Amino acid sequence: MKRRQVALLLPTVIASVAVAAACTTPTAAPDRKAGTDRTAMTLADGYEPESLNPLLGYGEEGVSKLFDGLVEHQADRSVRPVLAADLPKPGPDGKSWTVKLRTGIKFHDGTPFTAEDVVATYRAVLDPAYASTVKSSFGMLTGVVQVDPETVRFDLAYPYTPFAHKLVLGIVPNEALAQPGPLDKNPFGAKPVGTGPYKLEEWRKGEKMVLAANDAYFERVPKVRKVTVVFATDDNARAQRMKAGEFDGTALPPALAKTFEGNGYRQITHRSADYRTVTMPMANPVTADKGLRLALNHAVDRQGMINAFLAGKGAPASTPIPQALPEFVEPAAQFRFDRPEAERILDQTGWVKRDNGMRARGDLAASFTLMYPVGDAVRKDLAQAFASDAKAVGIEVRLEGLGWEAIEPRMGRDALVLGGGNPFDPDLKSYPLLHSSFGGDGFNNPGRYSNPAVDRALEAGRREADPAQRVAQYREFQRAYAADPGMVFLAFLDHTYVVREGWTGYQEVVDPHTHGLTWGPWWNLQDWTPQG
User: Phi, psi at residue 207, to the nearest 5°?
Assistant: First the structure.
């Protein structure tokens, strides 16, 4: 999926008092309208993908249900081989990785999985003719070759320690990539063929998607035989339909999820690496000012936002390194809520208060626009809280709720409430978000932040093989960033879900930014077993 689509996945904020009153705790889970067949499950999702092509971002972090990667992420952040026979092995210089492939695997249409499919998939990522939206995240990859019928080798421009995490990308049959051309025009995105535990049976765009168990799956045939995903964008309507028995599971805001506690329902909360941050574009003379950015990082009450708008379900964020990667978190790079310190920094850097309490430096008013996607109530509430905290120290923040088509052309000059993050490795999000080489690359570093000390530490971290030295480099990166912050990180959000009782196999996991049908409680749905 395109990176801008991922931004819509977060469940919206606490419902209004009237709606919350309407969504009172149910006395018991109603009978499922679809019957009592526990081998079928109906899930509701607030987001519908535009494409199911992995090279356009679908299931970019794995567990897509339709596709397998060479490896797959596990709940403990490790990777395990899937289409690979063993874990990928780096060469002595770290500039190549060799992967042995499993044999006897077939795609959903019965054609065999071969090394040619792996080579075709990754070459299409790199070839500009295909216009793959994930290409920029493979900047270290220079090529992939077939060594023999059961082995492929990836060649890198430089040693890249977390390369195994890049191999969760779903493998596409080479026949689907035979003709170079923009992938968004390729019919494969609507009629995908993978090797995954489920295959697409039906997709009524704007309504629902139906997945059927892959009876030829090479690992374990799913016991949940049919999965219907209903696209329902409104949180309150989704909760009501869940209460009416239409759905077996969905993501909901914390306050709505709480109303389902007990009585046949299970409320599940996942920690996540899913951050919300306010970008500070360098092309805007106000947000480009280092002193103002530093002051805003002290001016915002992160815990207050979490308590007020997320029902306490979240953690303060100061950098993109989440608590899910505890060994990498630098305590000295965490910003405390300190309004007097924010005022002192603004005074010291020449932002003078006028009679109306708002600040300016010469003729330049301390004022800028902050955008948020109009359909995302969480980002709207965080934007409003951010604007209120900024006003308290004399900075005016003008809010605009817009569609993504209006937001994207303006990201280089106007601030944005941005989301992202994953718990697998610090490089995977920190580098594209804050390294200067990604400046202006869509949602990667949209504000064109540039800091040589940050660049050096990020570059060293991704190349370093020694675990202790990697930790040291990422902590150095955070210290350099905290001295000159390019954004105002607000929170890592917990994700809350409601699941009807009746299945076993759930395993807790720390979510990345993307969830929906991929991550969340059903990240390992193929392992679930019906009860009774």
Answer: -130, -65
Q: What angle do CA 503, 505, 511 make, to 5 degrees?
A: 110
DSSP string, 67-113: ---SEEE-TTS-EEESSBSS--EE-TTSSEEEEEB-SS-B-TTSPBP
What span, in angstroms and rounded, lies between the C-alpha atoms of 419 and 492? 9
Q: Is the dihedral of CA 382, 384, 386, 392 positive or negative?
A: negative
Rounded Cα distance between 478 and 493, Å, is 20
Cα(470)–Cα(465) distance, integer angstroms:
7
What is the C-alpha to C-alpha distance for residues 152 and 96, in angstroms, rounded to an integer? 10
**Of 365, 482, 462, nearest in space to 157 by CA:** 462
Are 463 and 457 within 8 A, CB to CB?
Answer: no
DSSP string, 173-192: -GGGGSS-S-GGGSGGGTS-
**Helix/strand/coil for 454:** helix
The whole-angstrom separation of Cα 530 and Cα 36 is: 11
Identify residue 490 by its one-letter amino acid code.
Answer: L
Pairwise CA distance, residues 316 & 335, whole Å: 9
| 169 touches 54 (CB < 8 A) | yes
What are the CA-CA distances from residue 327 to residues 271, 286, 334, 469, 510 (Å)? Answer: 16, 35, 15, 12, 16
The model's pLDDT over 324-353, given as tens digits with 9 standing for 90+, comes to 999 999 999 999 999 999 999 999 999 999
Question: What would the pLDDT profile of 212-250 be if each residue is shown by its tens digit?
Answer: 999 999 999 999 999 999 999 888 889 999 999 999 999
Indicate whether this model's pTM tops 0.85: yes
Read off the pLDDT band of 30 (50, 70, 90): low
d(CA 281, CA 370): 11
Rounded distance, CA 484 to CA 490, Å? 16
Task: Give CA–CA dist 301/85, Å, rounded.
Answer: 49
DSSP string, 381-423: HHHHHHHHHHHHTT-EEEEEEE-HHHHGGGTTTSEEEEEE--S
